[in-house]
Write a structure and sequence with these properties.
- With about 250 residues, the chain is mainly alpha-helical.
- Among the domains are: about 35 residues; about 70 residues, no CATH class; about 55 residues, no CATH class.
- Helix content is about 60%, strand content about 5%.
- It has 13 helices and 2 strands; from the N terminus they run αααααββαααααααα.
- The protein has a two-stranded antiparallel sheet with strand order 1-2.
- β1 and β2 form a beta hairpin.
- α9 packs antiparallel against α10.
- It is elongated.
Amino acid sequence: MSLEEFKQFINELDSPYILKLTAVGLTTLCLVYLGKIWYSYGYFKRRGFNNPKPEFLFGNVRSVYKKKNLSEQYQEWTKTYGKIYGYFEGHMPVYVISDLDIVHEIFIKQSSNFAARKKMHLNPRDSGPTVDLLIATQSRWKRMRMVMNPTFSSSKLKELDPILVLCADRLIDVLNKESDNNEVNVSQYMKRFTMDSIWNCAFGIDINIQYKKENEYFYKCEDVFRSLADLNLVTYVADYFHEFRSMIVDL
């Protein structure tokens, strides 16, 4: 059939028939995609690994969000399913490994074969100009790590000892002043200690964040992490239907 004959055939079709044909096609695609999701939930069983029972479409994401932090959920699952198991973010399988021998094999002996990292939510493409070490994957992440490795040599880290000791002394001094035999929220002090260490070691700037509670830099950093934790509808779609992440990023 030539192109002209095909156009003529389409023009001769009635609008209701085209709508029915479109509806049948979309329904078929949806059923095939739902079947793919259902099949994906057998990923770990087919490979001989245990995993918590997933919810259809959601996987184990809602169980994770019910906990105060992800590490608590990992600890519970590790006690139940062992040192190697998996869970599902939507229908994307995620391995959790706490066996030290396997971790050593992955990160040390065969690190060249494991350059990829799991993408989080709506990370931009690796070719984008805004991609940094935290969100880069595959070859770009590996290249960034190779460039940064000399910075974390043992000799370079030893040079940071006096700075870290100074920050730790500040933390002890602040806790001694604030506690006064009363209970204190250690979390806030540890946040400031961490920020103080990073600013001094990485940027060479002493912003005195542990003594000055009203610190603009501290509040700005908290805003950044808070914005990363706020998940909107688009982020949920990217989690539950990870095949379409690249399409959503390009929008």
